[in-house]
Design a protein that fits this description.
This protein is of the alpha/beta class and 631 residues long. The protein has three domains: 5-291, Rossmann fold (3-Layer(aba) Sandwich), CATH 3.40.50; 321-484, Rossmann fold (3-Layer(aba) Sandwich); 504-630, Rossmann fold, CATH 3.40.50.920. 42% of the residues lie in helices and 16% in strands. The protein is built from 25 helices and 21 strands. The strands form five sheets. Strands 10-9-11-12-14-13-19 form a seven-stranded mixed beta sheet, with helices on both faces. It has a five-stranded parallel beta sheet with strand order 1-2-3-5-4, with helices on both faces. Strand 20, helix 23 and strand 21 (591-597) form a beta-alpha-beta unit. Helix 2 (22-40) packs across helix 4. The longest helix has 19 residues, at 22-40. The chain is globular, with a radius of gyration of 28 Å. The termini are far apart.
């Protein structure tokens, strides 16, 4: 164990260290992060970039009494190490271990369970407002990156915070800019000046005095403020925040411990809304991550000597396997080649959604709008209104953020936007905030929306063809999983009709109704039951909405006995849709079991571990089928 870090069991121990030891501690924390993520996988570059910042914040502020809110939270590994979880850090993102994001159930130092961006300022402002009502005197600090700042909620919160004037500190962590020596030095000097308590006291008293001078006072005060703002605008990039009502300090070198500690000491004793702008380097201290922060944003276990990922999970898989994301990436490029109306939209996820390839081939038809899912959806609607065919790729968990835009701007307008919902279902080790298990339930109640779920690559390609041809709101959900490579270079829609389910296997005793790739589990369960002389019919829904009315006939064929299985929550899911179809047709004498995810947030773990825990298995399907037949 490292010499200094081994003695840090909480920020209380950290605050006992002399300032000159903090750089050494930061080096030890950084090395532990590298060692850990090389074994567990995770978000490396972002965590390495905030090591000094994290140390300085816990050194100056009295956490957890002072509230520290991390936006997104994927940069929280140093924070976890310093807040009593150092000895468990090797369990990071493992089933039953530490979450890869802040988690309120893990520690009192994790004020908010987070994983989505642009939420910290709103949450922190709420904490500050509650503090004042309760007449407490703790500090509230929100740490937000420049990427997350592009989210609309951040601007709404900052506008409100500036107007309310609460004692609130926002740390803006910028890692996409650098400070030139001249501007940096002058800015650093000005920041030291304006953060001095005496300077602020004199400035405020002078403003008050001048403004009280009869007739000319207010004009002089206004002119003085304009001169001050103009001077600062020439020197620092903070005038935008000043106009919102914040006092701006920075930019500060986010890896200079002495400067960080000094600015936080000064700013902590000032009042009102204020922003401390720090500039950091993603992947700091690990050359492969510094050189390629995008690759080292989120990755599998890797060889820390060379930075090469070790994809242990796929060593025994066939080379014929391909991810659904790759199927999407390949197909959308083919569609765009044939149809110049095709445009692609994503919200800061070009690589994750596979649209990076499209962006290179068709840059003029590719739009990355930043972390702004609501805007991405309405922007897509606007293009569809003018005759284009936007395909908008957003992870299921992030699509939740744009629900009203799907309703109001796409479905209500009946516009031909195709929602490519990646990571639908269990995503694995990113955990609670990232599991894409709610999309069926929150989408299928929207009028005019078609919802599809492909079981394999061939289905997926055909569904994309059909979706574009429909020229109406369509959602296609697909998991973070692999499937067989498509067997046709140009699958048509001849075998895919709107709202038509597919019989994958005939049978007469019981029906298994599957949704998406879980058709494979259904077929294997059916094969197992066949060996026990139980004849099973397997139906692939393909369309969750509109639901095929022939499903009623299929169910009747097997004595109204059926099992449904889906990779989503049961409440409001595909199985519920089948029950609603039966109820609408006044069919009540059926026997059914719905297999899906329970009414709870799904923890982190591998897909296999979570499938086993929640019964998305061949064994569970066969057991549920037998239960029905034995009733």
């Amino acid at each position: 164990m490292s010499e200094i870090l081994s003695k840090i069991n909480s920020p209380i121990d950290l605050r006992k260290l002399p300032l000159e030891k903090l750089d050494e501690l930061s080096s030890e924390v950084r090395q532990l992060v590298i060692d850990t993520v090389s074994e567990t996988g995770g978000h490396l570059a972002s965590s390495l970039g905030v090591v000094e910042l994290t140390v300085a914040l816990h050194y100056i502020f009295n956490t957890p009494e002072d509230k520290l809110v991390w936006d997104v939270g994927h940069q929280c590994y140093p924070h976890k190490i310093l807040t009593g979880r150092r000895d468990k850090i090797n369990t990071l993102r493992q089933f039953g271990g530490l979450s890869g994001f802040p988690n309120k159930d893990e520690s009192s130092y994790d004020v908010m369970t987070s994983g989505h961006s642009s939420t910290s300022v709103s949450f922190a402002l709420g904490l500050a407002a509650a503090r004042d009502i309760e007449k407490k005197n703790n500090k509230v600090i929100a740490v937000i990156g420049d990427g997350a700042l592009s989210g609309g909620e951040s601007f709404e919160a900052m506008n409100n915070a500036g107007q309310m004037g609460k004692d609130l500190i926002i740390v803006l962590n910028s890692n996409d800019m650098s400070i030139s020596e001249s501007v940096g030095a002058l800015s650093s000097y000005l920041t030291r000046l304006i953060s001095e308590p005496l300077f602020n006291k004199v400035r405020n008293e002078l403003r008050t005095f001048v403004s009280r001078i009869p007739k000319v006072g207010p004009k002089v005060a206004k002119a003085a403020r304009k001169f001050e703002e103009g001077l600062k605008n020439l020197i620092v990039p903070g005038i935008f925040f000043e106009e919102l009502g914040f006092t701006y300090y920075g930019p500060i070198d986010g890896h200079d411990m002495k400067k960080l500690v000094a600015i936080f000491q000064r700013v902590s004793n000032l009042g009102g809304p204020r922003i401390v702008h720090v500039v950091t380097t993603k992947g700091k201290g690990y050359k492969p991550a510094e050189s390629d922060p995008a690759t080292f944003h989120g990755l599998k276990p890797f060889d820390k000597d060379n930075g090469i990922e070790e994809d242990k999970s796929n060593k025994n898989q066939s080379n014929d396997k391909i991810s659904f994301t790759q199927v999407f990436s390949d197909k959308i490029c083919k569609l765009a080649k044939e149809n110049d109306k095709i445009v692609a939209v994503t919200a800061a996820m070009p690589c994750g959604t596979g649209l990076d390839v499209f962006a290179k081939k068709y840059p003029e038809r590719f739009f990355d709008v930043g972390i702004a899912e609501q805007h991405a959806l309405t922007f897509s609607a606007g293009m569809a209104k003018e005759g284009l065919s936007p395909i908008t790729a957003i992870y299921s968990t992030f699509l939740q953020r744009g629900y009203d835009q799907i309703f109001h701007d796409i479905c209500l307008q009946e516009l031909g936007v195709v929602l490519a919902i990646d990571r639908a279902g269990i995503v694995g080790q990113d955990g609670i905030t990232h599991q894409g298990v709610f999309d069926i339930a929150y989408l299928r109640n929207l009028p005019k929306l078609v919802i599809m779920a492909p079981k394999d690559a061939n289905d997926f390609e055909a569904m994309l063809d059909l979706a574009v041809s429909l020229k109406k709101p369509v959602a296609i959900r697909y998991p973070r999983a692999k499937t067989e490579k498509p067997t046709s270079s140009k699958p048509g829609t001849d075998n895919l009709k709107l709202g038509q389910a597919k019989v994958l296997k005939e049978g007469k005793d019981i029906t298994i109704i599957s949704c998406g790739p879980l058709a494979n589990i259904a077929l294997e369960a059916a094969a197992k039951l066949d060996k026990e002389k139980i004849s099973v019919q397997v139906i692939d829904l393909r369309f969750i909405k509109p639901l095929d009315n022939k499903i009623i006939d299929y169910i009747k064929k097997t004595n109204k006995c059926f099992v449904t299985i889906e990779e989503g929550v049961r409440l409001g899911g595909a199985g519920s849709a089948v029950l609603e179809l039966l109820e609408a047709n006044k069919i009540t004498d059926y026997k059914a079991r719905l297999i899906g995810l329970p009414d709870e947030f799904i923890e982190h773990g591998t897909r296999e571990e979570l499938f086993n825990k929640y019964g998305l298995t061949i064994e569970n399907v066969t057991n549920k089928a037998k239960e029905i037949l034995n009733d």
